[in-house]
Predict the structure.
Amino acid sequence: MPAVRVAFPRPVRVVDTTWIPLADGCRLAARIWLPEDAEDDPVPAVLEYIPYRRSDYLAVRDSLRHPYFAGYGYAAVRVDMRGTGDSDGILVDEYLRQEQDDALEVLAWLAAQPWCSGAIGLFGKSWGGFNGLQIAARRPPELKAVISLYSTDDRYADDVHYMGGCLLAADMLPWASTMLALNALPPDPRVVGERWREMWLHRLEQTPPYVEAWVTHQRRDDYWRHGSVCEDFAAIECPVYAIGGWADAYSNAVLRLLEGLPGPRKGLIGPWGHSFPDEACPGPQIGFLQECLRFWDHCLKGVETGVMNEPMLRVWMQDAVEPRSAYSERPGRWAADSRWPTDSVNTRVLALNDGGLEDNAGEERRQTIRGAQTAGADAGCWCASGVPSLPPELPPDQRREDGLSLLFTSPPLAHAIEILGFPEVTLTVDADRPNALVAVRLCAVSPDGTSLLISRGLLNLTHRESHEAPTPLEPGQRYAVTVRLNAVAHGVPAGHRLRVAVSPTYWPWAWPSPEPVTLGVHTGAASRLELPVRTPRPDDDTLTPFAPAEHAEPLAVEALGASRRERVVERDAGTGVTEVRVERDSGGAVRLIDSDLTQSERSVFTYTIAEGDPLSAAVRCDWTRTLGRGDWQVRVETTSLMTADGEAFRLTNSIDAYEGPTRVCARTSSLTVPRDLA
């Protein structure tokens, strides 16, 4: 656990609510942590600008980090975006231009305050990491640096919606349902006053289910190009520190940002899931806040900290381990390179031969596999949370998955290797249906036979030439396609074997093709693995260690029940139905003692499919959230359901909201969206 720091160089005061006015009359609610003497000695500001409710939902999380920055001479500012928390307005989708426009006004307002020096940094993880990059691309003069954690430069390629043109059943609807339930909560009457109910009802009626837009745009069109900073890396001129985690879903963008951005940049990828590096699992955790301060001091105060003289890229090179669904720490070591791409990495090409993976291509053969609809049940979570109290989320031993795939396995390695970068698998394939996908996994097989997942990738084969203009397959025709796997840093010891596994199904990660598919793979010279192999550098052993993890003292809370969290995979041999169910239950309310607010949440995500019937695929997400103080008690219940037939996806979203025992809103929306080669 991180150490708690209670003494800081500068005493801190907290302004619980400040209203930031926007030009259209909307007001955004902000909490600000200030050095007490900031009016006499102005300081730079660091802004986190996200939709996750500063007064309750993330109040404890915020208390760990923002006061820490303030204690070291920064105005730490946490803003509820338009339509969220205590702010005015409606949030109608992710990453819209309105979100960026509002942020530009917020930055100008902050820079004009008497306690601000005029220099501002943006930081955040996930949504806050995304919009940090997007806002930087607008080049506001006040913005001097960005720390972006667990984000992406390409909203279509690397987010919860699509991967390789495949619709991500694993997280698209669950994430949309999470935002549906969170947006359905009211502002705090103690903050906004008597208008809270009017604001709440307006929000309930006007905030759409985001999943409807996401499923409507199944190609990489202008909807996805907006907010994808890879469209013009040169637009970002300020320094960027990009941070990712190998157990997280957002590590790929770090390497692309280092390659594409024109200005000062750094990249850091640890073993972590989707939590801050001072607390995330798998460990080791690092002194993330101290690392931020080194970057902020350099960029916002002009203090020479040496942070930009260090290697551009630093990664946790993971060791081979026994495959498990959870690790408290992932064995490995820190490795670094002065630039990316780097001369330290060279490509090793291995041919996919008849069941083998070898240096030299063998005779061409055709192997076939009829996709099993339940392949992928042991895939683990698309994005591990990094929170140790949640259900195990990492992929277990892959031998069951391997048994449902075509396998290409190397002889035992004569020498250990280190992989760093994006493995790529080129396949020459055919299919018996016009609409098909391919899932490719790279595993390390130990001498005892256990199969450890290293990396994976998906490709909708109708997107083989373009994500913008997909075309159907001609059954029986051969196509050469390349599947880029997720970036990885991983060691494979001598005596272990590499394995490429290929399948035309991967539920519940990828929504299945509308008909069962038999996939043909042509081996020998027609198919290959391109492996980015790194030569270890002697200076890896001389890297300056990170400071130990620490944070500020958290807000005081009272837990009023025991939480329960589990992930269950159930297979019914009689019906052929496989169900993956993920439950999270706070077990009762948690009370924030300072504000006397209580909150609770319960969610159940259920993924079902029947063997042999891809049209049986269904995802259902149920949420219950409560919020209250004394006699004021509210509850929201939401249900989101996604199914498909051969022609269309079908979406249903419902919200029931209660003030005490009285239901004040009952709203259901349904949408049918034609399948667009998905």
Remarks:
- The chain is about 15% helix and 40% strand.
- The first helix runs from residue 59 to 71.
- Residues 166-217+556-593+596-678 form one domain.
